[in-house]
Design goal:
single chain; alpha/beta; Oxidized Rhodanese, domain 1; 2 domains; five-stranded parallel sheet; 31% helix; globular
Length: 300
């Protein structure tokens, strides 16, 4: 992506979604982050994978940032044979506290911003903070791509954090269990599959899912519809509202989002819950990997 294209995209971003001054909103712009990078109680959390394998030269890191790569730091783990689950609360809180993040900090998560799937690392980590009851969290819209395109300061080394205690209070309403999905099937609660259409209709499947198909009655909202890899930006509220309307989901209606392992689903959760404001959106962490593991559970 050329620098001029990213700068143009930044100009096109609508204002209301983003944080200004001290308020905390789901997305912040690169300009906002540059202006507030030195603020007290602001922690820049760089979750980019494989930074050392890039061609960024001697200055590959974001100034004032702590680093905890999404794929290797321990944000997700295998639980009872199901991959990609959130670790035990005390374990994930220990990871966060080890990054020097405490209960008073506003955390800004920075992915690479390359495409919707990669951006899903940021939405998944964001969901993790919310699940632990930490509301002061945002994502840098467009990630590193926007930060670098707009001249964000780069340094040779990441911050070495001093470990602190991270307090948490689990918000169970944000996470759905298999038993709750079974109950949702009986009650008619809307189920939203965030996978590509090919997986939704059973033409292909992830290696971690036993058989192709989806949960009966689910509707499809592909994760790629919520993030533009071309312009490095998340969908605007009006776009999300249109997509939600097309799903037949009423404002504030209860719904459960899922995918294969709760990664792509976090993108849908973020769009519906945080951008569109439907706080009755929950994520099925085990998703199809857990659902399809039992041959007795129905597959459409």
């Amino acid at each position: 992506m050329r620098l001029s294209s990213l700068l143009a995209a930044a100009v096109m971003v609508a204002v209301p979604v983003f944080a200004h001054a001290a308020e905390v909103t789901p997305l912040v712009t690169a300009e906002w982050l540059k202006s507030h990078a030195g603020d007290e109680n602001l922690v820049i959390l760089d979750i980019r994978d494989d930074i050392e394998k890039t061609d960024l030269g001697e200055l590959p890191f974001i100034a004032n940032a702590v680093v905890a790569p999404y794929g290797s730091a321990g944000w997700r783990t295998e639980v009872d044979g199901v991959p990609g689950q959130i670790p035990a609360e005390e374990q994930i809180a220990g990871l966060i506290g080890g990054l020097g993040i405490d209960g008073d900090d506003h955390v800004v998560i920075v992915p690479w911003g390359t495409d919707s799937s990669e951006f899903g690392g940021a939405t998944r980590v964001y969901w993790t903070f919310k699940y632990l009851g930490h509301d002061d969290v945002s994502i840098l819209d467009g990630g590193w791509r926007q930060y670098d395109a707009q001249g964000g300061e780069r340094v040779a080394e990441a911050v070495t954090p001093e470990a602190v205690e991270f307090p948490y209070e689990v918000q169970p309403q944000l996470r759905t269990t298999t038993d709750q999905v079974v109950a949702a099937l009986e009650s008619g609660t809307k189920l939203i599959d965030g996978r590509p259409n090919e997986q939704f209709i059973g033409q292909s499947k992830s290696p971690v899912v036993r058989v192709p198909g989806t949960i009966p009655g689910a509707v499809n909202l592909p994760h790629s519809s919520l993030y533009s890899g071309e312009y490095a930006s998340f969908a605007q509220p009006e776009t999300v509202a249109t997509l939600v309307k097309d799903l037949g989901l009423a404002e504030g209606e209860d719904n459960i989002v899922f995918c294969n392992t709760g990664h792509w689903a976090s993108i849908i959760w973020f769009g519906l819950s945080e951008v569109a404001g439907n706080k009755n959106t929950a994520m099925y962490d085990g998703s199809m990997a857990e659902w399809a593991a039992d041959p007795a559970r129905p597959i459409q």
